[in-house]
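FAQ

Q: What does a record look like?
A: Structure on top, sequence underneath. For example:
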């Protein structure tokens, strides 16, 4: 199966020290009810009673005190967004999970299988296809006509039926489906792994069009050694070089024969002393506790906002989620107790190049790069996503995002802490709330992200200034229940082709649109909507590229104005010559058209060296070339 062509389309133009010691024994026969909890919640980390309470705005935020209730009966608060549509949980679905995008379809994973929504009209999404195939979490990704699905539960079967699970018919790993007929997906062989697959990441090799790679993160128990076909081992000793702990698994998928997909690196040792498999003979393939971090962080002084808060930190023995950005040769691994920066220029053999820890983080969960690869955001799923973590007594540094700048040093690329971002309002004891899955919104010259926070709702924030992130839009519902915490809320909210799609764990599927505000003007939103992908997986980031249009140029100009980098004279000249060129763009006077187009490049030469000015200069130059 060859990948589709024309993937990128345009609308206008073609903590304290981590735990030491052994890990728990492998849970290869975990009961289904325990597996459900393990898949969803991980370890629950309780706040220290001595933790200093943060200062929240608790009185005037419309999200505070929303009425509880199931479905659309709950109270709702919305700012600078428009909710276009809401669909209830699809028949047969249980616990909505992650999303992937292909063509006019959104594929929604859930613990019982997956659903396909037709969003060709985002205001009226239609449920197109439902597949029942139990096996938490069933996180999904797409590549051409292939759908990949993560399966971790010990109760999942190869044939997607329920009951009667044995070592011979159990499936734990990555399922692969042929979705060339979107109404009739066909399950292919798939690939079994020792740890199953909690999440996975599609990784492209820029030098190889015939294969694609899948990084597999497994966080549950390891198969019993006797269970075929692996001879797996959950040994945690640093003296056992064969342990399936302290690693990620790499699968290679031949696109012409996906049934032949197979593991090419069973244990990629990105947790070792040297950061890859080259030092296995030194028995250095243990946890990150075993080596000093390459970017050590001292015990933060009191009052810094980063001193230890008292919550436990998870041991780093595998990655919960890996976000790959092949076009810059990097991946970011959110790996339980640490955040990793990974070189993926050789996709089959990833190599750690930096690691950071944070005394306020309990469980490094997921990661997002900004578009130019100079920043990375890590999320902390403190409490595993199943607890109320946005209360007035919960610090703003816990269960939050940590923003890092990626900087070039004499020792190579390093991650330097910039700030935290957490929802700037309180939620009740009845709402599970913590940082979870989100994606970039492609506004030229700005770093903007939409993100799910379980029952904290969905938020949009600007982190262009990585030291001062600012919330600019949100949507929230009241609790599922007025007196008890019933797990729910948004698992994922992602931007795709002009709209935001949210997967609510128990309430269903939502579609949102941005509205103009002091934070985003009409031209910035229009420019973001120009970026169109034929398919998109958030954990496999692709560079955002804008078409050469006046909308793009005006959005870059707005970004430069917002950042205050333009002199009054340069700002006036930009407005003058952009307007002039747009008026003559359709003129029959070719000489006038060429002259005005040349002025776009001329005014671009007045710009400075800041990244936003250079982006605007490039946009002016590209537009000028199309108008001549």
């Amino acid at each position: 199966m060859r990948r589709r062509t024309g993937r990128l389309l345009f609308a206008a133009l073609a903590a304290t020290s981590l735990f030491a010691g052994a890990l728990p024994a492998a849970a290869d026969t975990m009961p289904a009810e325990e597996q459900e909890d393990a898949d969803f919640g991980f370890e629950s980390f309780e706040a220290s009673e001595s933790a200093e309470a943060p200062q929240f705005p608790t009185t005037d935020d419309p999200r505070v005190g929303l009425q509880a209730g199931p479905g659309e009966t709950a109270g709702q608060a919305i700012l600078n967004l428009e909710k276009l549509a809401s669909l209830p949980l699809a028949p047969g679905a249980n616990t909505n999970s992650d999303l992937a995008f292909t063509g006019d379809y959104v594929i929604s994973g859930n613990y019982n299988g997956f659903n396909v929504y037709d969003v060709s009209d985002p205001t009226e999404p239609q449920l197109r296809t439902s597949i029942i195939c139990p096996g938490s979490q069933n996180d999904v990704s797409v590549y051409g006509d292939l759908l990949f699905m993560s399966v971790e539960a010990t109760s999942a079967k190869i044939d997607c039926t329920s009951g009667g699970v044995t070592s011979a018919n159990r499936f734990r790993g990555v399922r692969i489906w042929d979705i060339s007929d979107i109404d009739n997906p066909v399950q292919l062989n798939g690939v079994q792994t020792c740890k199953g697959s909690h999440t996975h990441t599609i990784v492209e090799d820029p030098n190889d069009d015939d294969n694609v790679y899948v990084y597999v993160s497994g966080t549950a128990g390891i198969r019993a050694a006797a269970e075929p076909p692996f001879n797996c081992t959950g040994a945690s000793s640093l003296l056992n070089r064969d342990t399936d702990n302290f690693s990620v698994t790499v699968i290679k998928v031949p696109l012409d024969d996906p049934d032949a997909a197979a593991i090419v690196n069973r244990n990629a040792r990105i947790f070792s002393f040297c950061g890859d498999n080259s030092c296995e003979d030194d028995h250095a393939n243990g946890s990150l506790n075993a080596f000093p971090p390459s970017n050590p962080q001292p015990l933060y002084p009191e009052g810094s906002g980063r001193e230890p808060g008292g919550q436990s930190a998870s041991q780093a023995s595998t990655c919960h989620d890996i976000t790959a950005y092949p076009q810059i040769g990097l991946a970011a691994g959110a790996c339980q107790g640490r955040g990793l920066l990974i070189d993926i220029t050789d996709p089959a053999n990833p190599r750690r190049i930096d690691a950071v820890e944070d005394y306020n983080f309990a469980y490094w969960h997921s990661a997002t790069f900004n578009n130019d690869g100079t920043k990375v955001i890590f999320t902390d799923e403190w409490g595993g996503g199943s607890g109320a973590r946005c209360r007035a007594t919960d610090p703003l540094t816990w269960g939050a995002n940590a923003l890092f700048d990626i900087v070039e040093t004499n020792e190579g690329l390093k991650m330097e802490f910039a700030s935290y971002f957490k929802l700037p309002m309180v939620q009740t004891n009845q709402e599970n709330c913590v940082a979870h899955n989100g994606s970039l919104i492609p506004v030229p010259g700005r770093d903007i992200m939409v993100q799910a926070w379980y029952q904290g709702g969905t938020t949009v924030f600007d982190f262009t200034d990585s030291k001062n992130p600012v919330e600019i839009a949100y949507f929230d519902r009241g609790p599922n229940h007025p007196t008890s915490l019933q797990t729910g809320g948004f698992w994922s909210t992602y931007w795709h082709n002009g709209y935001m799609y949210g997967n609510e764990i128990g309430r269903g599927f939502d579609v949102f649109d941005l509205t103009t505000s002091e934070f985003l003007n009409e031209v910035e939103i229009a420019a973001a909507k120009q970026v169109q992908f034929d398919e998109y997986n958030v954990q496999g980031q692709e560079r955002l590229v804008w078409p050469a249009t006046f909308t793009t140029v005006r959005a870059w100009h707005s970004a430069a104005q917002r950042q205050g980098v333009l002199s009054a004279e340069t700002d006036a000249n930009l407005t003058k010559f952009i307007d002039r060129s747009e008026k003559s763009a359709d003129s029959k006077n070719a000489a006038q058209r060429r002259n005005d187009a040349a002025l776009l490049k001329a005014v671009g030469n007045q710009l400075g060296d800041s990244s936003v000015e250079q982006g605007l200069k490039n946009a002016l130059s590209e537009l000028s070339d199309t108008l001549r």
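Q: Is there anything notable about this one?
A: Residues 8-536 form a domain with the Methylamine Dehydrogenase; Chain H fold (CATH 2.130.10.10).
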